[in-house]
Amino acid sequence: MAATKSTERRLEQVRRRLERWRQMRVYAHAPMPPRLWAVAVALTRQHGLYRTARALRVDYGALKRHVEAAAPAPRERPTFVEIAAAESRPREACTIEIDGPRTTLRLRVPDLPLSELATLGRLLAGLEP
What we know:
The protein is mainly α. The chain has a two-stranded antiparallel ribbon with strand order 1-2. Strand 1 and strand 2 form a beta hairpin.
């Protein structure tokens, strides 16, 4: 519950900061400063796009464009996995490591034929249903 209150407090602080900027800007249609956009984009990760846009009273479409521009480019999925055809079974157990944005998954696969190991790799990569 404390995390929710602190994130709500942060949203309110940014809303007040935006209101001050709106009152102080030179002309009515002045573009919002990049620093304020960056803070608004960061808040969307906690509150979502719609809720952040509504709370801060910013244009939903403009905020969405800034969020998309700030997002890292999607990583390419592997399209080719080389499997040595000389052996039908690995000599030892295999360990498969999958690095994610927040964790690394390690699978220890003992005595699995290479054809099944290749199928498992394609499934984990999302290349097969």
